[in-house]
Design brief:
single chain; 331 residues; alpha+beta; 5-stranded mixed barrel; 63% helix; elongated
Length: 331
Protein backbone atom coordinates (compact mmCIF):
# COMPACT_ATOMS: atom_id res chain seq x y z
CA UNK A 1 0.00 0.00 0.00
CA UNK A 2 2.83 2.40 0.85
CA UNK A 3 4.46 1.68 -2.49
CA UNK A 4 1.28 1.95 -4.58
CA UNK A 5 -0.28 5.02 -2.92
CA UNK A 6 3.02 6.68 -2.07
CA UNK A 7 3.79 7.16 -5.76
CA UNK A 8 0.43 8.94 -6.19
CA UNK A 9 0.71 11.10 -3.07
CA UNK A 10 1.36 14.30 -5.03
CA UNK A 11 -1.16 13.55 -7.80
CA UNK A 12 -4.16 15.93 -8.18
CA UNK A 13 -6.72 13.21 -7.53
CA UNK A 14 -5.15 12.04 -4.29
CA UNK A 15 -8.03 12.53 -1.81
CA UNK A 16 -8.75 12.10 1.87
CA UNK A 17 -9.70 8.44 1.38
CA UNK A 18 -6.35 7.68 -0.22
CA UNK A 19 -4.58 9.66 2.53
CA UNK A 20 -6.41 7.64 5.19
CA UNK A 21 -5.30 4.31 3.71
CA UNK A 22 -1.74 5.50 3.18
CA UNK A 23 -1.53 6.88 6.74
CA UNK A 24 -2.70 3.55 8.16
CA UNK A 25 -0.05 1.73 6.14
CA UNK A 26 2.63 4.22 7.20
CA UNK A 27 1.60 3.83 10.83
CA UNK A 28 1.86 0.04 10.60
CA UNK A 29 5.32 0.35 9.04
CA UNK A 30 6.50 2.75 11.81
CA UNK A 31 6.51 5.81 9.54
CA UNK A 32 4.59 7.88 12.08
CA UNK A 33 5.85 11.31 11.02
CA UNK A 34 4.96 10.59 7.39
CA UNK A 35 1.48 9.38 8.37
CA UNK A 36 0.90 12.62 10.28
CA UNK A 37 2.12 14.77 7.39
CA UNK A 38 -0.04 12.95 4.81
CA UNK A 39 -3.23 13.29 6.85
CA UNK A 40 -2.65 16.93 7.73
CA UNK A 41 -2.16 17.90 4.10
CA UNK A 42 -5.23 15.93 2.95
CA UNK A 43 -7.42 17.38 5.70
CA UNK A 44 -6.19 20.88 4.95
CA UNK A 45 -7.06 20.41 1.27
CA UNK A 46 -10.54 19.15 2.16
CA UNK A 47 -11.44 22.65 3.34
CA UNK A 48 -14.95 23.05 4.70
CA UNK A 49 -16.35 19.99 2.93
CA UNK A 50 -16.71 17.75 5.93
CA UNK A 51 -18.17 14.28 5.53
CA UNK A 52 -17.77 10.90 7.20
CA UNK A 53 -14.46 10.29 5.41
CA UNK A 54 -13.05 13.58 6.67
CA UNK A 55 -14.10 12.69 10.21
CA UNK A 56 -12.41 9.30 9.88
CA UNK A 57 -9.28 11.12 8.72
CA UNK A 58 -9.36 13.38 11.77
CA UNK A 59 -9.86 10.38 14.06
CA UNK A 60 -6.84 8.64 12.57
CA UNK A 61 -4.81 11.86 12.89
CA UNK A 62 -5.68 12.08 16.58
CA UNK A 63 -4.59 8.47 17.09
CA UNK A 64 -1.25 9.23 15.44
CA UNK A 65 -0.79 12.39 17.52
CA UNK A 66 -1.54 10.36 20.65
CA UNK A 67 1.25 7.92 19.78
CA UNK A 68 3.58 10.92 19.60
CA UNK A 69 2.11 12.37 22.83
CA UNK A 70 1.46 15.73 21.19
CA UNK A 71 -1.21 16.66 23.73
CA UNK A 72 -1.45 20.37 22.94
CA UNK A 73 -1.98 19.61 19.26
CA UNK A 74 -4.52 16.91 20.13
CA UNK A 75 -6.51 19.42 22.16
CA UNK A 76 -6.50 22.02 19.36
CA UNK A 77 -7.50 19.43 16.74
CA UNK A 78 -10.25 17.99 18.96
CA UNK A 79 -11.51 21.53 19.65
CA UNK A 80 -11.90 22.08 15.90
CA UNK A 81 -13.86 18.84 15.49
CA UNK A 82 -16.15 19.49 18.48
CA UNK A 83 -16.92 23.01 17.24
CA UNK A 84 -18.05 21.61 13.89
CA UNK A 85 -19.60 18.36 15.19
CA UNK A 86 -20.51 18.67 18.91
CA UNK A 87 -22.03 15.17 19.04
CA UNK A 88 -18.86 13.32 17.98
CA UNK A 89 -17.97 11.68 21.29
CA UNK A 90 -14.62 10.22 20.24
CA UNK A 91 -13.39 13.80 19.64
CA UNK A 92 -14.53 14.79 23.12
CA UNK A 93 -12.73 11.75 24.53
CA UNK A 94 -9.50 12.83 22.86
CA UNK A 95 -9.97 16.37 24.14
CA UNK A 96 -10.66 15.18 27.70
CA UNK A 97 -7.60 12.94 27.64
CA UNK A 98 -5.45 15.81 26.35
CA UNK A 99 -6.75 18.11 29.09
CA UNK A 100 -5.85 15.47 31.65
CA UNK A 101 -2.32 15.13 30.27
CA UNK A 102 -1.94 18.92 30.12
CA UNK A 103 -2.84 19.02 33.84
CA UNK A 104 -6.01 21.02 33.22
CA UNK A 105 -7.80 18.74 35.64
CA UNK A 106 -11.03 20.71 36.31
CA UNK A 107 -11.61 21.09 32.56
CA UNK A 108 -10.90 17.39 32.01
CA UNK A 109 -13.38 16.45 34.75
CA UNK A 110 -16.07 18.62 33.17
CA UNK A 111 -15.41 17.18 29.70
CA UNK A 112 -15.69 13.58 30.92
CA UNK A 113 -18.96 14.49 32.64
CA UNK A 114 -20.33 15.87 29.34
CA UNK A 115 -19.39 12.61 27.60
CA UNK A 116 -21.12 10.52 30.28
CA UNK A 117 -24.29 12.60 30.04
CA UNK A 118 -24.63 11.44 26.44
CA UNK A 119 -23.05 8.01 26.83
CA UNK A 120 -23.38 6.82 30.46
CA UNK A 121 -22.02 3.38 29.56
CA UNK A 122 -18.66 4.66 28.27
CA UNK A 123 -16.26 2.79 30.55
CA UNK A 124 -13.18 4.69 29.41
CA UNK A 125 -14.90 7.98 30.22
CA UNK A 126 -15.68 6.70 33.73
CA UNK A 127 -12.00 5.83 34.15
CA UNK A 128 -11.00 9.27 32.85
CA UNK A 129 -13.40 10.95 35.27
CA UNK A 130 -11.94 8.92 38.16
CA UNK A 131 -8.43 9.97 37.11
CA UNK A 132 -9.56 13.60 37.08
CA UNK A 133 -10.93 13.24 40.61
CA UNK A 134 -7.67 11.64 41.74
CA UNK A 135 -5.59 14.49 40.26
CA UNK A 136 -7.87 16.95 42.05
CA UNK A 137 -7.19 15.08 45.33
CA UNK A 138 -10.82 13.97 45.62
CA UNK A 139 -9.86 10.37 46.38
CA UNK A 140 -13.27 9.36 47.73
CA UNK A 141 -14.96 10.44 44.48
CA UNK A 142 -12.32 8.65 42.40
CA UNK A 143 -12.77 5.39 44.31
CA UNK A 144 -16.57 5.61 44.11
CA UNK A 145 -16.45 6.21 40.35
CA UNK A 146 -14.32 3.11 39.77
CA UNK A 147 -16.28 0.98 42.26
CA UNK A 148 -19.55 1.93 40.55
CA UNK A 149 -18.00 1.11 37.18
CA UNK A 150 -17.06 -2.47 38.10
CA UNK A 151 -20.44 -2.96 39.76
CA UNK A 152 -22.40 -1.74 36.74
CA UNK A 153 -20.09 -3.16 34.04
CA UNK A 154 -18.37 -6.24 35.52
CA UNK A 155 -17.38 -7.46 32.05
CA UNK A 156 -15.32 -4.29 31.43
CA UNK A 157 -11.86 -5.51 32.46
CA UNK A 158 -10.07 -2.10 32.43
CA UNK A 159 -12.42 -1.01 35.22
CA UNK A 160 -11.14 -3.77 37.53
CA UNK A 161 -7.55 -3.02 36.60
CA UNK A 162 -7.84 0.71 37.24
CA UNK A 163 -9.60 0.19 40.57
CA UNK A 164 -6.84 -2.21 41.69
CA UNK A 165 -4.14 0.23 40.59
CA UNK A 166 -5.86 3.07 42.39
CA UNK A 167 -6.01 1.11 45.65
CA UNK A 168 -2.38 0.02 45.26
CA UNK A 169 -1.33 3.66 44.80
CA UNK A 170 -2.75 4.28 48.29
CA UNK A 171 -0.74 1.31 49.64
CA UNK A 172 -3.96 -0.70 50.01
CA UNK A 173 -2.52 -3.77 48.33
CA UNK A 174 -4.65 -6.36 50.08
CA UNK A 175 -7.82 -4.63 48.86
CA UNK A 176 -6.32 -4.34 45.38
CA UNK A 177 -5.69 -8.10 45.22
CA UNK A 178 -9.25 -8.76 46.43
CA UNK A 179 -10.60 -6.52 43.66
CA UNK A 180 -8.69 -8.49 41.03
CA UNK A 181 -9.86 -11.78 42.57
CA UNK A 182 -13.45 -10.54 42.39
CA UNK A 183 -12.90 -9.51 38.78
CA UNK A 184 -11.49 -12.94 37.91
CA UNK A 185 -14.44 -14.60 39.62
CA UNK A 186 -16.79 -12.67 37.32
CA UNK A 187 -14.51 -13.02 34.28
CA UNK A 188 -12.81 -16.45 34.50
CA UNK A 189 -11.13 -16.02 31.11
CA UNK A 190 -9.82 -12.54 31.93
CA UNK A 191 -6.11 -13.01 31.20
CA UNK A 192 -5.59 -9.25 31.51
CA UNK A 193 -6.59 -9.52 35.17
CA UNK A 194 -4.13 -12.37 35.74
CA UNK A 195 -1.39 -10.27 34.18
CA UNK A 196 -2.34 -7.39 36.48
CA UNK A 197 -2.11 -9.66 39.54
CA UNK A 198 1.48 -10.49 38.58
CA UNK A 199 2.31 -6.84 37.92
CA UNK A 200 0.79 -5.87 41.26
CA UNK A 201 2.92 -8.43 43.07
CA UNK A 202 6.03 -7.04 41.37
CA UNK A 203 5.03 -3.50 42.27
CA UNK A 204 4.40 -4.43 45.89
CA UNK A 205 7.84 -6.05 46.15
CA UNK A 206 9.47 -3.04 44.50
CA UNK A 207 7.83 -0.59 46.86
CA UNK A 208 8.76 -2.70 49.88
CA UNK A 209 12.39 -2.72 48.72
CA UNK A 210 12.37 1.02 48.05
CA UNK A 211 10.91 1.70 51.49
CA UNK A 212 13.75 -0.34 52.97
CA UNK A 213 16.32 1.72 51.06
CA UNK A 214 14.59 4.95 52.09
CA UNK A 215 14.53 3.95 55.75
CA UNK A 216 18.27 3.22 55.72
CA UNK A 217 18.94 6.52 53.92
CA UNK A 218 16.89 8.42 56.51
CA UNK A 219 18.85 6.77 59.34
CA UNK A 220 22.13 7.74 57.67
CA UNK A 221 20.95 11.35 57.30
CA UNK A 222 19.85 11.43 60.95
CA UNK A 223 23.29 10.16 61.96
CA UNK A 224 24.96 12.90 59.93
CA UNK A 225 22.79 15.56 61.58
CA UNK A 226 23.50 14.10 65.04
CA UNK A 227 27.26 14.29 64.42
CA UNK A 228 26.91 18.00 63.63
CA UNK A 229 29.75 17.90 61.12
CA UNK A 230 29.77 19.87 57.88
CA UNK A 231 32.28 20.83 55.24
CA UNK A 232 33.19 24.53 55.17
CA UNK A 233 35.18 26.57 52.69
CA UNK A 234 36.65 29.72 54.20
CA UNK A 235 39.37 32.34 54.02
CA UNK A 236 41.95 32.24 56.81
CA UNK A 237 42.44 35.80 58.09
CA UNK A 238 45.00 35.38 60.86
CA UNK A 239 46.21 33.25 63.75
CA UNK A 240 44.93 34.49 67.11
CA UNK A 241 46.53 31.77 69.25
CA UNK A 242 48.52 28.66 68.39
CA UNK A 243 45.33 26.65 67.66
CA UNK A 244 42.79 29.49 67.26
CA UNK A 245 42.25 31.22 63.92
CA UNK A 246 40.04 34.00 62.61
CA UNK A 247 38.27 32.96 59.37
CA UNK A 248 35.77 34.46 56.96
CA UNK A 249 33.04 32.33 55.40
CA UNK A 250 31.92 32.67 51.80
CA UNK A 251 28.90 34.61 53.12
CA UNK A 252 31.26 37.26 54.48
CA UNK A 253 30.65 36.32 58.12
CA UNK A 254 33.71 36.51 60.39
CA UNK A 255 34.11 33.46 62.68
CA UNK A 256 36.73 31.58 64.67
CA UNK A 257 38.15 28.12 64.20
CA UNK A 258 39.73 26.03 66.95
CA UNK A 259 41.93 23.19 65.66
CA UNK A 260 43.80 20.29 67.28
CA UNK A 261 47.12 21.53 65.97
CA UNK A 262 48.42 24.65 64.19
CA UNK A 263 47.84 23.19 60.73
CA UNK A 264 47.69 26.45 58.73
CA UNK A 265 50.99 28.04 57.69
CA UNK A 266 49.67 31.19 56.01
CA UNK A 267 46.43 33.09 55.19
CA UNK A 268 44.45 31.87 52.17
CA UNK A 269 41.54 29.73 51.00
CA UNK A 270 40.92 26.44 52.83
CA UNK A 271 38.27 23.73 53.03
CA UNK A 272 37.81 21.25 55.88
CA UNK A 273 35.32 19.38 58.02
CA UNK A 274 34.18 21.29 61.10
CA UNK A 275 31.73 20.78 63.91
CA UNK A 276 28.63 22.92 63.51
CA UNK A 277 29.44 26.38 64.84
CA UNK A 278 28.07 27.77 68.09
CA UNK A 279 27.90 31.39 69.24
CA UNK A 280 30.36 32.06 72.05
CA UNK A 281 30.77 35.38 73.96
CA UNK A 282 34.20 36.84 73.25
CA UNK A 283 35.72 39.88 74.96
CA UNK A 284 37.66 42.02 72.55
CA UNK A 285 40.96 43.64 73.46
CA UNK A 286 41.06 47.21 74.75
CA UNK A 287 42.42 48.28 71.38
CA UNK A 288 39.28 46.89 69.70
CA UNK A 289 36.86 48.46 72.17
CA UNK A 290 37.07 46.03 75.09
CA UNK A 291 33.42 44.97 74.85
CA UNK A 292 31.95 41.48 74.65
CA UNK A 293 30.18 40.13 71.56
CA UNK A 294 28.95 36.75 70.32
CA UNK A 295 31.20 35.13 67.75
CA UNK A 296 30.53 31.81 65.98
CA UNK A 297 33.26 29.32 66.78
CA UNK A 298 33.87 26.15 64.76
CA UNK A 299 35.75 23.19 66.19
CA UNK A 300 37.83 20.68 64.31
CA UNK A 301 36.27 17.20 64.72
CA UNK A 302 38.21 14.47 66.47
CA UNK A 303 39.60 11.70 64.24
CA UNK A 304 36.95 9.27 65.49
CA UNK A 305 34.18 11.77 64.69
CA UNK A 306 35.59 12.32 61.20
CA UNK A 307 35.70 8.56 60.64
CA UNK A 308 32.04 8.21 61.71
CA UNK A 309 31.09 11.10 59.41
CA UNK A 310 32.84 9.54 56.41
CA UNK A 311 31.24 6.18 57.17
CA UNK A 312 27.75 7.74 57.27
CA UNK A 313 28.47 9.71 54.04
CA UNK A 314 29.66 6.58 52.25
CA UNK A 315 26.59 4.63 53.42
CA UNK A 316 24.26 7.36 52.18
CA UNK A 317 26.09 7.50 48.84
CA UNK A 318 25.87 3.72 48.42
CA UNK A 319 22.16 3.72 49.27
CA UNK A 320 21.41 6.49 46.77
CA UNK A 321 23.34 4.60 44.11
CA UNK A 322 21.43 1.41 44.91
CA UNK A 323 18.10 3.24 44.78
CA UNK A 324 18.99 4.78 41.42
CA UNK A 325 19.99 1.40 39.96
CA UNK A 326 16.88 -0.25 41.38
CA UNK A 327 14.64 2.41 39.81
CA UNK A 328 16.40 2.00 36.47
CA UNK A 329 16.70 -1.76 36.18
CA UNK A 330 13.83 -3.03 38.33
CA UNK A 331 13.95 -5.83 40.83
Amino acid sequence: VVRLLGDAEDAPGFGIGDAYLLSVACKETAQIDRAERILKRALRNSGLNWDLTVLEGYQKLLEILQIQRKWSEIKLTADTIVQRCPTVLWARNFRALALLQLQQHPAARDEFRIILQTSPGDGNAHIGLAMSFEKLKDLAAAEKELSDLVRDQPEFLPGWIELARFLASLDRYEEAFLVLADGLDKNPSGTLLLDEVRQLEIRKDRERTMRGFQKQKTLAEQRLRALGIEKKTFTLICRLKPRLFEIQLSTGERCMLLTHNPRFESPGEYSMLVLRGEDVPVTLSARNGGFTQDVKVFLEPKPQEEAEYQQACNLKKELMSSMEKFEKFGR
